[in-house]
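[step 3/7] fold_predict: job queued, chain A
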Amino acid sequence: MALSEEAKKIWEKLMEVVTDATAIFTELKNSNLLSSDEIKKTEEYVNIINTVASKKHTTDKQVKEIEIEVQTAYTALLRMKERVTTFNDSSNSEEQETEDNLANEEVETIIYIGPTLRKYGITSNTSFVGTKKDTNNFFAQAIKDIPEIEKMLVLTYELAGKKKLLNDKNNAFYNIYKTVERKSKEV
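[step 4/7] structure written:
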C-alpha cells in the first residue's frame, strides 16, 4: 500500500525534526549549562526520535503513529532547550522561578491503554514521552469529550497491573475502558 501525499509530507517534516533534534542536542551539550543527568535525558529524547523515525512506515497509519511519538519526544527536547535559553536570558527572580518550575516537571513515558479512538487519531497502546502536562495537552479534546480517557493514561511501571485489570470484567478499571469504548462511538 502506497503512502498518501499527506503522509509523504508528514514524513518529510519528521525527517526535518530528526535533523533539528540532533542540532539542538549538540547545542545543548556544548552550552555547558546542563548537568550530566540532563545531558543523558536530552540524549534519550534524540535517541527516541531517531529510533522511532527509523521504524517501518508503509501505511498512513504507521506514519501517523510515528509522528505522534516523534512530536512528543521533540516537545520534551524543546522544553529542555527553552529552559537553557531562559537560564541564559534570565535577569530577574520571576524568570528564575519559571525555569525552576520547568526543571521540576518530570518527563515520563506514558502509555494510552484505552480503545483506539479514530476520531482523535489515538491508537491503543501508544506510548508518549513527555511531562504529564504535555500528554494531557495532546489528549485535551479527547479528554474534554470523554473525561474517562485520562484514566487510560498509565505510567510504564503501572502498565502490567492495569493490563491485568483489563482482562477481569469484574472491576472498575475494566468498566472505565468499556465506558470510553461506548462513548467514543457516540461522539
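[step 5/7] annotate
The longest strand covers residues 108-112.
The helical segments are 5-30, 36-53, 60-89, 93-104, 132-138, 140-145, 159-166, 172-186.
exit 0
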